[in-house]
């Protein structure tokens, strides 16, 4: 399997069929621009078909997992029907390609994870998070409806009360609290995140492959059943990209000032 077409992702084969994938834009805290977002959406179909890979581990280069969508990309999308329509399809590909990838995915959340980065962090089958990492879905603070992954996975992971609170306020939480409420699988000291994720991956890679993959398939039926909820939330997010609040939220973030929503 050739992974040569991914200039924002690094690939390293480890023993026992473990594939380590590293998001590699450390100078911007691994924020996803159009190229990186597209690569994150399509890589899981290749992992699915890669006979040499039994388990994938994904992490971020440097101190962050991923700071979400690149602000310049967000501003290019605001009010642009063609760009938002394209993103709607790509957003769907990212979510469903992770859900339908037969191989287990482990996320090593080594630092901040928000927005598009949080999609990958939380849709992984097992998530290992730095206890001091900052996590959050900041869509509403930007003036956008919480689309991406939020409606399909947060209520299942941490319950409706917590999902409503964090998604409607946009408040951040740390890895220790995320573990406490069930949002992530494990929280460990930052220096242990990748070793722990790789140890879990090795355990999965040396276990009974068909049993593990079919267990994943069965569990992810909960997510497939919630597909219409995700589809609606993604469309709602793209709808808000066409309105004035998103443009104001992005400008306020760029100018480091409080937003003045309508």
Notes on the protein architecture:
The chain is 52% helix and 15% strand. With 262 residues, the chain is of the alpha/beta class. The protein has one domain: 2-enoyl-CoA Hydratase, Chain A, domain 1 (Alpha-Beta Complex). β2, α1 (34-49) and β3 (55-60) form a beta-alpha-beta unit. α1 (34-49) runs parallel beside α3 (81-100), α3 runs antiparallel to α12 and α6 crosses α7 (160-169). The longest helix has 20 residues, at 81-100. The radius of gyration is 17 Å and the shape is globular.
CATH superfamily: 2-enoyl-CoA Hydratase, Chain A, domain 1
Order of strands in the sheet with the most strands?
Answer: 1-2-3-4-6-9
Highest-level CATH class? Alpha Beta
| Fraction of residues in H or I helices | 40-55%
What is the CATH topology classification name? 2-enoyl-CoA Hydratase, Chain A, domain 1
Could you tell me the radius of gyration in angstroms?
17 Å
Count, helices = 13
Low-confidence stretches: none
SSE order, one letter for each helix or strand: EEHEHHEEHEEHHHEHEHHHHH
Number of domains: 1
> Helix/strand/pairing class, anyone?
alpha/beta
The largest sheet, given as strand count, sense and whether it forms a barrel, is: 6 strands, mixed
